[in-house]
Amino acid sequence: MYPDITPYETGWLKVSDVHTLYYECSGNKDASPVVFLHGGPGGGCDPKDRSFFNPDKYKIILHDQRGAGKSTPSACLEENTTWDLVKDIERLREHLGIEKWHVFGGSWGSTLSLAYAQSHPDRVRSLVLRGIFTLRKSELNFFYQNGTSHLFPEAWEEYIAPIPEQERHDMILAYHAQLNSVDDQTRLAAAKAWSKWEMETSRLIPDSDYIARAASDDFANSFARIENHYFVNDGFFRDGQLLEVQEIDKIRHIPCVIVQGRYDVVCPATTALALKKVWPELTLHMVPDAGHSSREKGIAELLVKATDGFADLDI
């Protein structure tokens, strides 16, 4: 990854009567623009996210999605759907006076990247995606109900602990009730348990510093509440919508590179393969010694290689 850099521009974009988004620009203001779409939903951006891009060859644009990171109001679920976020990306593009840009996203960011590209294919120069997630019921079931639990049984016991045994047949729905409880203590305890489950399972070799993020009240509250809100509503998609042929046909002409960890148990490799099957023109890299995180060495190297490859693309 490239060395850390600081933004040359930061700002706020009001996108509705409720929501105002934080955004920033770094790198070369005269170079090819790229928009980074963070994970979660609800995860927010990190300064190191700028480092996937050559700062001499890219104008690097990061923003925190509705309710996430520095955007306000924090953890707000009102007017917060996939299609609101797609509209926000277009508002940001127009606000910055950009005609066409590269799109980069991992995990939920890959979901949003696909939804945005399928909605505005004429605005996308390239796609670099990681940890493919299309929010099908089968994907949610694997991570939150019966799949990853078999591989991380100790972490699973912590995850299910806040939920009464009789409600554990639908963990997303059960958590929804607690994450929207009027009792602050109940809501925050649920948020931390939900967040810790994802932090503990995201890397092939667990990282204690990464897991510790779940202990932050502010991070856990926005991450868990927004993520659960999207998942209990099936991402506001038809099941499998992003993989439908008529949707892929809209973006088939866009150069696309996917980097997928072989042992990703948050967004399993089967979804990346499903996307490759319906969109054979894309390039799929399966990293043999990695899990879900973009910070794992093999994944990070291939993501940077992909952005380097598209840096001079002119379409």
TrEMBL record:
Source taxon at top rank: Eukaryota
One GO process term, biological-process aspect: proteolysis
InterPro entries recorded: AB_hydrolase_1, AB_hydrolase_fold, Peptidase_S33, Pro_iminopeptidase
Domain AB hydrolase-1 stretches: 33-294
Cited Pfam families: Abhydrolase_1
One term of GO molecular function: aminopeptidase activity
Keyword list, A-Z: Aminopeptidase, Cytoplasm, Hydrolase, Protease
Catalytic activity: Release of N-terminal proline from a peptide
SUPFAM superfamilies given in the database record: alpha/beta-Hydrolases
Enzymatic class: hydrolase
Subcellular location as annotated: Cytoplasm
GO cellular component, one term: cytoplasm
Enzyme Commission code(s) on record: 3.4.11.5
Active site: 107, 264, 292
Matches recorded under NCBIfam families: pro_imino_pep_1 (TIGR01249)
Family: Belongs to the peptidase S33 family.
Protein name: Proline iminopeptidase
Lineage, opening ranks: Eukaryota, Fungi, Dikarya, Basidiomycota, Agaricomycotina
